[in-house]
Amino acid sequence: MKSPAANPKPAGNAEAARAEFCRAGIPDEVTTKVLKQYQPYLRWAIDTKLRPALQLWVEHLGSQQLSARLQKAPLLLCHTPEECSGVYLWLASIGADAERIQQKVPRVMARRLDQVQSTVWAIQQVLQLRDDQLPAFLKRHASCLIFKPERIGQTLQTVAELLAVPVKSEEVQEVVMVCDNRLFTINPAMLSQLVSFFCEEFGGGQHAARTALKNGVYRVSADTMRARAVELKAMLGWTENELNQGVTANPMILTKKPSTVVSNIQKLQAHSFSSAQALHVCASRPSIAGYDWSSTANKEKLTYLRHVLQLSQAELTSRPQLFSTSLARIIGPRSEFLYACKGISLDTSLAVSRSLSTITRLSDANFAARFNNLSASPPLVYDDQFKRHWQQRWTFLVCEMGLSYADICSCRILLQTSLLNTLAPRWHFLILLETAETDFKAADHLTALATLSDEQFAQAFSSASMGLVYDPNFMHCARGNLCRFCQ
Questions:
Q1: Which of 63, 122, 347, 360 has the least C-beta neighbours within 10 A?
Q2: Rounded to whole angstroms, how far apart are CA atoms 475 and 304?
């Protein structure tokens, strides 16, 4: 039997502790949550520990921000702002996005600096990460910083065992670097159990384990995986072999509720696909059933494929990889690059479709090596700058100029025209003319906007009587006003 001294009563009861949180401006519901998650606050001396800690943080953050931080990091009061600032500054010093980590996983800032450092060093030692690889790792796996090195080591050892390779192998590093960001938050024993179940249930060996880890299939229980697979099999009309192949190729589909998958397929049908066509596309590439086809990005992608690249319904259905390929990062800039260097015919949609079927499977480096045209004047080089410029121009044409896809198709040279030097200032000038002259329509002069020299454009559209002169001063001001598209 324990003596009374072994289980002392709280220094100040729950009401007194709650009163201190209230005095610090913390809402009642937040106080209840914090005291439930970290009950030792109830045993803190009110005058000498709890009140000073609250006052210190209120002075540092203010009541509102402190309330928000406490909800995500209940142990925050156990440390001083200086200690948390030390963690923040150290993470920034190694190149990590400390601000993002603080927002996403505020509990990290409530740990001692030496604890965070020991965790990072353990990760770096086991995965053999270079210093320049740490920022990318911590961007994806910031949650690992709340765990002790021992727990991190257990998780990495589990990954190695599932892949059947040594823990310090390059394969473990490669997989972990792209794994689902909840990898380190799941108990290592449960991680092993769920990934092993996935491999045994659907086959595929170490390859299946690799894709399961990358896609975070361990976010759902074994029973849920089995039940969802059964429903998907019935819904998509798969054989047992097709089910196993589809699920091991795209484990992410098991992380979606069957009702969500059904809804997504119905939304795909709403884009003029028949039920058979939608099911064929999803059966060919199961991850497509996990996409929300009512989202703006996905609707824009389908519109681009149909109206800019002029692909027919049959061509789209026969090439499901296009559905799961990014418009902004791949389809848009690559198709435009091929048009620019005459890599595909401007008149034959089938040629476009065949080319896209090839280029969607190429890495950026391989695409550039295959299609770069250094002999052109100026040289055509597919790189990050080309992709960024395409995205900026596309956003400007659609959002700022309000052009339809038909307008863009009728004047494709717009997509190859400098945004800052030509498109932005000239369009701004034409809009001013449209405002000043009732019968003038800016959209009627797209070809002139893209093809005339600065002198020719000034001669054609300047109006001294209205005080509108297209000159270097005007172009400079217009670039400043519209530079947000180039950020």
A1: 347
A2: 31
Spatial separation of the C-alpha atoms in residues 249 and 113, rounded to whole Å: 41
Rounded-to-integer distance, Cα 54 and Cα 189, Å: 38
Where would I find the H helices in 377-453?
384-395, 405-410, 424-436, 446-451
Range from 50-54, 266-270, 399-403, 408-412 carrying the lowest mean pLDDT: 408-412
Cβ neighbours for 431, distance < 8 A, ≥ 6 positions apart = 442
284-302 pLDDT, tens digit each: 777 788 888 999 889 989 9
Alpha-carbon distance of 112 to 86, in angstroms, equals: 8
Q: Could you tell me the end-to-end alpha-carbon distance of the chain, in angstroms, rounded to an integer? A: 69
Helix ranges, 346-423 (H): 349-359, 364-371, 384-395, 405-410
Torsion of CA 246, 249, 251, 254, to 10 degrees: -10
In eight-state DSSP terms, residue 10 is P
Please state, in angstroms and rounded to a whole number, the distance separating the CA atoms of residues 325 and 361.
9
**Structure-token pair, residue 466:** 């209205």
Cβ 385 vs Cβ 372: under 8 Å: no
pLDDT in tens, 396-412: 898 888 888 878 888 88
Q: How far apart are CA 296 and CA 93, in angstroms?
A: 38
Place 183 in a pLDDT band, splitting at 50, 70 and 90. Answer: very high
Residues 6+ apart with CB under 8 A from 161: 192
Burial class (CB in 10 A: 0-12, 13-18, 19+), 167: middle
For residue 437, the SS3 value is coil
**Mean pLDDT, residues 337-349:** 61
- What would the mean pLDDT of 2-14 be, rounded to a whole number? 50
What per-residue confidence (pLDDT) applies to 22?
Answer: 92
Which residues touch 154 (CB under 8 Å, ≥6 apart)?
188
**Cα distance between residue 171 and residue 288, in whole Å:** 27
Alpha-helical (H) ranges within 38-148 are 51-61, 63-72, 81-93, 98-104, 113-127, 134-140
* CA-CA-CA-CA dihedral for 199, 202, 208, 209, to nearest 10: -20
Q: Which of helix, strand or coil describes residue 463?
A: strand
Q: What are the tokens at 339?
A: 């048009």
pTM greater than the 0.70 cutoff: no
Q: At what angle do helices 222-236 and 258-269 cross, to 10 degrees?
A: 30
Amino acid 5: pLDDT = 44
Cβ 195 vs Cβ 162: under 8 Å: yes
Using CA atoms, how far apart are residues 215 and 42, in angstroms rounded to an integer?
Answer: 42
